[in-house]
TrEMBL record:
Official protein name in the record: Sulfate transport system permease protein CysT
Segments traversing the membrane: 25-50, 80-102, 114-135, 155-173, 205-226, 259-283
Gene Ontology molecular function terms on file: ABC-type sulfate transporter activity
Gene transcribed to yield this protein: cysT
Task of the protein: Part of the ABC transporter complex CysAWTP (TC 3.A.1.6.1) involved in sulfate/thiosulfate import. Probably responsible for the translocation of the substrate across the membrane. Part of the ABC transporter complex (TC 3.A.1.6.1) involved in sulfate/thiosulfate import.
Signal peptide per UniProt: none
Length: 296
């Protein structure tokens, strides 16, 4: 091998070696990586691994009986269905809220911006009680909806969806907002000067740019909704086969000291959530690579 080829090989390896060995605020790669793995193992991996280990005590038949009971299956359908619907609603209206906060100036803008984070700061139990009082048949909103349209919100699956929309709004808004702030108005003006109408500008110019952020916000809102308990348990009504969510069923199993049964249901929730989030992340990665291909 010639000296030129040796120099090329060293040059190709130099960026990677520099990244691993360059000094920084944190210690070296080995220490930082070891701490990260230990931290995630203690807080995430070990607790999650305890679920299938605990449910294994039921045996395969006992596990299947615990997770496939009609009441449990009905709670799966309600939990994932309501979470999916709430995340889709937040995807649309959360993007509109983010657009208004980024592109317009109006009195009270800072107050509206602060209100977006309210579900983060408000205890979930307080949110659930407030929503129940608001949407009950005697509430400020529930009363007119029941009287004028015949819609009963509290203690129905519709109430669950509304509660999940409430707690999921910030995830979409705060994910999309910084991306919109980086999009320059000149891009839209250039598209308009080339003859594109508003819909074409949104579909062909803006949407490809913000789509990865939209999918990330959707995934976060969906994941948050699947595991939500405090804000839902009050407004749901908790009627088996009708408005009983899976987290409530897990709590009921724990109160009955059926720890293995609760772990079995939680394991199914974990697997389903992981598969759905994996699909969303794969779609997000595919879209990012597609956008890079277009730019190239």
């Amino acid at each position: 091998m010639t000296s030129a080829s040796n120099s090329a090989a060293i040059g190709a390896q130099a960026p990677f070696a520099f990244r691993r060995n360059s000094p920084g605020v944190l210690p070296g790669f080995g220490i930082s990586m070891g701490y990260a793995v230990l931290y995630l193992s203690v807080l995430v991996l070990i607790p999650l691994a305890a679920l299938p280990i605990k449910s294994a005590g039921l045996g395969w038949q006992g596990f299947w009986d615990a997770v496939s009971a009609p009441r449990v299956v009905a709670s799966y359908k309600l939990t994932f269905g309501a979470s999916l619907l709430a995340a889709l609603v937040n995807l649309v209206f959360g993007t509109i809220v983010a657009w208004v906060l980024v592109r317009y100036r109006f009195p009270g803008k800072k107050i509206l911006d602060a209100l977006v984070d309210l579900p983060f700061a408000l205890p979930t139990a307080v949110a659930g009680i407030a929503l129940t009082a608001l949407y009950s048949e005697k509430g400020w909103l529930g009363g007119p909806l029941a009287e004028w349209f015949g819609w009963k919100v509290a203690f129905t699956p519709l109430g669950i969806v509304i509660a999940l929309i409430f707690i999921g709004v910030p995830f979409v808004v705060r994910t999309v907002q910084p991306v919109l702030e980086d999009v320059e108005r000149e891009i839209e003006e250039a598209a308009a000067s080339l003859g594109a109408n508003r819909w074409q500008t949104i579909r062909r110019v803006l949407l490809p740019i913000i789509l990865p952020a939209l999918m990330t916000g959707f995934a976060l809102a969906f994941a948050r909704a699947v595991g939500e308990y405090g804000s839902v348990v009050f407004i749901a009504g908790n009627m088996p086969m009708v408005s009983e969510i899976t987290p409530l069923l897990i709590i009921a199993k724990l109160e009955e000291f059926d720890y293995a049964g609760a772990a079995a249901i939680a394991t199914v929730m974990l697997l389903l959530s992981f598969v759905l989030l994996l699909i969303i992340n794969l779609l997000q990665g595919w879209q990012s690579r597609r956008n890079l291909g277009r730019l190239a």
